[in-house]
Design brief:
The chain has helices at about 1-10, 20-30, 45-60, 70-80, 105-115, 120-130, 135-150, 150-190. By secondary structure, the protein is mainly alpha-helical.
Length: about 190
């Protein structure tokens, strides 16, 4: 229903409204998620993903530099739409090579170029970094975000990131210890 209303309202404007396009793309992207499925037979995630990617692609390349914040949000949403190590040209079919170079990591980099001190952009970037196991970079983003806006959500995710870093260090040290112990046991057994 929301997409129909936004699409109709989008047609009423004589000029393009980048804010409406962004909202329409965000709604489409959210509908591509399996949790939004009402009936399995009606679920068309790839169509919604393609629709969202096309709209977001138009928003990020909108020619006016006035809408930097919306463009940055659109870059982040485009990065979320793309799966890990997937290029945009696999979703939308363009003739140019621009879409071939767009992958999710680049999307977040472009968003940070446009709005490096926007807490929302930082939040989307550090969540992407954490879920791709780039924990040190995620920690830096979280700390920067915490300096800009000290809220419980950022502190919570910083704690989760730090916990994950500690767990990774423990796992590496345990693995190193277990291999050295097994070597010593084998040497003792052979002697």
């Amino acid at each position: 229903k929301v997409i129909k209303v936004v699409s109709k309202s989008h047609r009423w404007y004589k000029t393009r409204n980048i804010s409406w396009e962004y909202r329409l793309a965000l709604t489409s992207r959210r509908q591509s998620h399996p949790f939004q499925m009402i009936k399995p037979e009606n679920f068309t995630s790839t169509e919604k993903q393609k629709e969202a990617a096309c709209l977001l692609y138009e928003v990020v390349y909108y020619p006016v530099n006035v809408y930097c914040q919306i463009k940055a949000w659109a870059w982040c949403q485009l990065g979320i739409t793309l799966r890990k190590d997937e290029n945009l040209h696999k979703i939308i079919y363009t003739t140019g090579t621009e879409a071939e170079e767009i992958e999710n990591a680049r999307c977040f980099e472009e968003a940070l170029k446009l709005c490096p001190n926007d807490p929302r952009i930082l939040r989307l970037c550090w969540s992407y970094l954490r879920y791709t196991n780039q924990l040190r970079e995620s920690r830096k983003m979280l700390e920067k975000s915490l300096c800009l806006r000290n809220d419980y959500n950022t502190r919570h995710h910083l704690a989760l990131t730090l916990k994950k870093i500690v767990q990774r260090k423990r796992f590496k040290s345990q693995r190193k210890f277990s291999t050295s112990v097994s070597c010593n046991v084998e040497e003792a057994w052979l002697n």
